[in-house]
Each structure stands twice: as structure tokens, then as C-alpha cells.
Design brief:
heterodimer; A: 342 residues; alpha/beta; Rossmann fold; 2 domains; 6-stranded mixed sheet; 5-stranded parallel sheet; 11 strands; 15% strand; B: 311 residues; mainly alpha; ABC transporter involved in vitamin B12 uptake, BtuC; two-stranded antiparallel ribbon; 12 helices; 71% helix; 1% strand
Amino acid sequence: MKTLQITGVAAVLAAGLAIGVAQAAEVNTIAVLTPEEGTDFGWNQQGVEAAKAAGKATGVEVLVAQGLGYGDVRPTLRELAEEGADLMFAHASGYNTAAPEIAKELNVPVAIVDTPTALTKGLIADYTLSGHDGAYLAGRMAAKLSRSGTVGIVVSGEPPSWNSQSAGFAEGVKAENPDVKVIYAVIGPAAYSDAAGGKRVTESVIAAGADIIFGQGNGSSFGMLQAVETTPAPDGGKVLFIDVIGDKSSLDKGHLLSSVIWDITPVYTAMINDLKADTFGTKSYAIGLKDDSVKLLKTPQVPDEVWTEIMGLRDQIIDGTIVVEPVFEATEVRARMSDVKE
Amino acid sequence: MDALFTQMFLGALFFGAITAAVPLLLAGLGEQMSEKAGVLNIGIEGMMIAGAYFGFLTAYQAESIWLGFIGGAAAGLAVALVMALLCVRLGLNQIVIGIGLTLGLEGLTALLHHIQFSRTYPRLPAPQILEIPLLADIPVIGPALFKHHPMVYLSVALVFVMIFLYRRTQFGLNLQAAGDKPAALDVAGVDVATTRTVAVLATGALAGIGGAYLANVGAGLFVPFITNGAGFLGIVLAMLARGRPMWVLFGALLFGVSLALTTALQVAGINIPTDVIQMIPFLAVIVMLVVFGRRSSLPAALGIPYQRGER
């Protein structure tokens, strides 16, 4: 009888373990939700393309829900869960309240951004990414190439990812030439699609003396680009633009200097694998120069000798000679900008 | 600090302020007409984004910003026709229909943009600027006020047209009656539904032009959700101005100037949280219009569908 009981308990434990392993390993479908269409040459496009690439790499089906706006995405999250999504990437800081709620309600894992404190094993992961080391290199490049000695940063909001890149850019400018002035302007609290605001603020920053603009904003970045293309610098010369995340080379009219390009495929792939390995929601993720998940875009506007120098600096960041710490708090970012009284 | 606040910088700031104010002015004037007639036009954001998309499409295809304004007006008018049919003729809930139209048109224009422009993101050339002789040469104020696209001057002139319309014409009186005592207007032999329909259609056309201005002059391109709540700000301006077109103009200008101020404070490196700085436009408009506009009132029948014979 005792042998029978032990055997029974062992069988139950084995079955439970087997079910547990099966649950952890079962990722057949993932979904990505983006506020704007995945064709913005930036944040949204990177999210959609990375999800597709990660899905292909791990052999899972990918559901894409794009252009959802910045409102309530709970109905979409529920629909995607009903369609069988085993993991949902809520690819907007505006979704980081709704997505965890739905994750808990339906017991479907979600990945959110800009909320590292929300980690919950097996259920909620965060990917607050930062291309700050790439932005640092962009700052070094801008300081080398500015004619006026003034460069501008225009952002569509102050989420942590934008903040760390703004700080990295300013740090790079000051490291290259402390005399170069950095002007910082935010279009609005969440002006990600405010192209008119992007153009208006960028024109003002150019009028204040900037001849290179480091712009961060989804749809609004096209307004920044338009301002750069249609507004001459105070010296009458060309204003150049440094973009982030995507590659707008195909749209360029000769004003695109560079871009801090992201590839978040490794992050999404790691998350899928972590879910399979039952380690989802237990760690943070990063992108960086070393594996080219962050890299600078070379355009015809960058002189070869400057590019060579920048690539040398890149190597120094990778080998640890130069250390660029991410700064996520907006107040700390503003403190790093030039005081106009300087 | 003096080195920063050059004539060029101040000129750019105030130029931006006027450019930002014009879509709000057009939307606010349009909304005001609807509200005067008793229709709370929550769908104005949808009319604006339709005007922005079709205005940009027309301007880009025809290579004419003026044709773009016509395209924008037509699009706003078409949306307003739906609003008029559902809310004025069928008496459906104005808030529900307005929200539905806005959400639907945000989605539709995003979809159309995705199909047509999402791989190319075309941009228009810099808009034509009309300089008012002599006045445009005044330092700072000249470039800020007298070097703009002609639509800016037409929009300001429209304020005076509206004042004349409301104070001096029979149609203006009819609008007022349709919003305050529609039954009395009906008894006087004027069709309330027709009066309200005309008001809603005019609102749509104005909002459409405002959207087209935003896309073609303000941004030089179209992106999904580009109106970014400008239509709702137009509603706020109209509600707070309470029937007075001049107060819509003041409110829109104040909003634009406050936006410019937020940029100036940031560029000057004023070390206070950006969120606080960016509250300035909203606070300024609310304070000004609440303080100075409180003696007037909203139409008594605002938002209430009119059915002949109903009590």
C-alpha cells in the first residue's frame, strides 16, 4: 500500500512537472501592438519588423496590430489573446497600464516599455531600451560638424528611452567640444504624432542658432525633417538632421546627417526564448553597440575622416575605455543641457 | 540670454504662434456656429483630420495649396453632412455620433495614409508667404504678424464676417433662435432643421480648412493623428468664448503665443519641469476666457435634438 502511495505521489509530481514544462515551453503565437502604422521609419516600424524577425527566428506566428493610437488598447489586447497570442509586445509607453492589467486578467504574458518596476515572473517583462551610447557618438559627430557652435535636441515627449538618448547626445557634444551649445526643446507632453508642432519647435530652435538637429519623435519627426529642409540656418547654410531608431535615407533630400539605428530583434527573440525557458519577467534587456543592435547610419553628409574618428570612438565604448551611463530622468537630462547664460 | 533672443529667434517664435493659432481659430469659429444653432459638434476633430488628409492629398496631387484648402473644405463638409443627417435630421445623440465620427475618421485617414504615403512620406514645398508692405519691415512684430500665408489674413477677416453675420443678418438671428428657442423659430416659419444643417455644414467646411492649413502650412505633410486634439481645443475655445467670435480669436492667439512661450522658456534653459511649462497654454486660455467670458451664456437648447411638436 505504501509503495502504491509513493508511486502515486511520484506520478502526480511528474505529471505536474511535465505540465509545467509544457506550459513554459509553449509559445506558438506572439503579437505586437503599435500606436502608429509600422511604416514610420522609426519606433513603430522597428517594433513590427523586430517582432516579425523574432517570430521567424523562433518559428512562431506573429500577429500585428498597428495604428492603434494612444488611447485604450484593452479591447485589442483581449482580441489578440482570444486569437491565441501567447506573448504580447505592447510597444508604446502609453500601453504600460492597460497591458499588465490584461495580462493579469487573462493570464497572458505581456512585454511593456518604460516600466522596469513592473517585472512579474512569467507574466510581465519590461524592455526599457536605450541607444544612449549611439546617441553619444551622434553628439560627438554633431559637435565636429556644427558651423555655428550650437546644436539642438527636439523631442516629442520625455519617455525614458528618449531621455537617455538626449542625455547621451548632449554628453557626446560636450565631450567633443565643451564650447558647443546644446538647446533642448520638448514639443509637448506626448506629441508623438504632432508633425506641425515638430516643425514649429524645430524652426524656433534653428532660429536660436542650431545648425544640427537631433530629433526624436515618431510621426512628429517628419515635421522636424520638414523644418530642417525648408529653414536655412542663421548663416544661410544647410541645417542637418540626426534621426533615431529608423533609417530615413530613402526619404532624404540631402539634410539627413545620421541616425541612431536600433534593432530590437535580439530583445524580442530573447523574450520568446525566456518565456519558453520559464525565465520571462525576471530580467532586463538591453541593446548596444557591441552586437550592432545600436549603430550609427552613415550618409553622404558625413565626411569620411569624421566617420573614421567616430568609428574609433565606437570601439572605445565597446572596449570600455569610454563609458556612457544611461540617464532616464527628465530633470537630469535638462540639467545636462547648456545654460544659455554660459 | 540677450544673444539668444535675437530678432530672428523672436520672429520665428511668434510666426510659429500665429501658425499654431490659425487651425484653432477656424475650428473654434466653426464650432461656435454649430453651438449657436444648438448642435454640440463633437465630431469636429474628425472633420479636421478629414480636411487635413484630403487637403494634403489635393495639394500634393494638384501642386496647389489653394486647391488643397478646397479639398479640405470639401472633406470637412462631407463629414458634416453625415453629422447633420444623423444628429439634426434623425435626432440621434450628438455626443455619441461626434465621437464615432472622430474615431472612424482617425482610423480611415490612417489607413489611407498607410496605403498611399507610408513608404514615401511626401512633403510639400515651403508655403507661399504674403508680406504686407511696410508693416512687415517692423522689427520683430513685422515678421511675426505681417509675413504669413494669405490664409492667415483670411482667417482673421472671417472673425469680422462672423460678427457681422451674428449681429446684422437675419440668418444670424435664426442661428441664435435655433440654439436658444428652436420652437419659437419654428413658429416664426423658419425651418429649424435647415438652419441647424447649414450651421453644421459650415462648421465642417471651416474645420476642414483648418485641418488642411495644419497639414499643408503648419506641417507641410500629413501623418496619422496629425490634428493631435486641435478639434477638441476648438470646442473648448468655442464653449469658453460663448458666442463671441472675437473671443475665439483672442483665445486662439493666446494659445499660440503660450505655445511659443513654452518653446522660448525651454530654449532659454529655464530649469523648471517641462510638464509645468507645457501647462501654460491651457491654463492661459482657460483663465482668460473664464474671467472675461463668464457674463455670456451657452444656448439653452445646446445638444438637444429638435422635433416639431415635442415638449
